[in-house]
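**User:**
If convenient, please work through this fold.
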Amino acid sequence: MKGEERRALILESLGQAQQPISASRFAKRFVVSRQIIVGDIALLRASGHEIIATARGYLLEHATTGKEVTIAVCHTPEEVLDELTIFVTHHIDVINVMVDHAIYGEIQSPLEITSMEDAHDFVEKYHQSKEKLLSNLTNGVHLHTIRYQDEADLRAAKQALATRGFLFSENEVE
């Protein structure tokens, strides 16, 4: 299979995917190395396709439905699953995490957590890696861009975050 054909099939798969697809999964499907797939993704991005890299694989940035807002939260590393659980049980997708570092400015990373499975996968990866969370750089304070469909879900999630002491600011970040 030629590279152009493989990249077209990768793009088609990403366009239909509801969950991230890993480079390893693509590599197995197309019987090539993972590095070839990483290169294909880089070429697709360079040609203008908005492909998001997450901890669980790649996603094509779709025209999303719903509203997005950024909120500030603060919690310990041990409470990350509790925070993510609040979001997903209120039908809220966690798009990314950001911190405002005193030296480097805004540092952000995509998360794309849309289910309890995603939340558990993220926390498991965190525990296995022994790495620090971005929020460790800012004493637990961090921002999330979240996507929601229903204002009532957002209000309920914010109330649950406030009850747990996670909501850093009552107001969304502009």
Observations:
- Residues 59 and 70 are 21 Å apart (CA to CA).
- The longest strand covers residues 93-101.
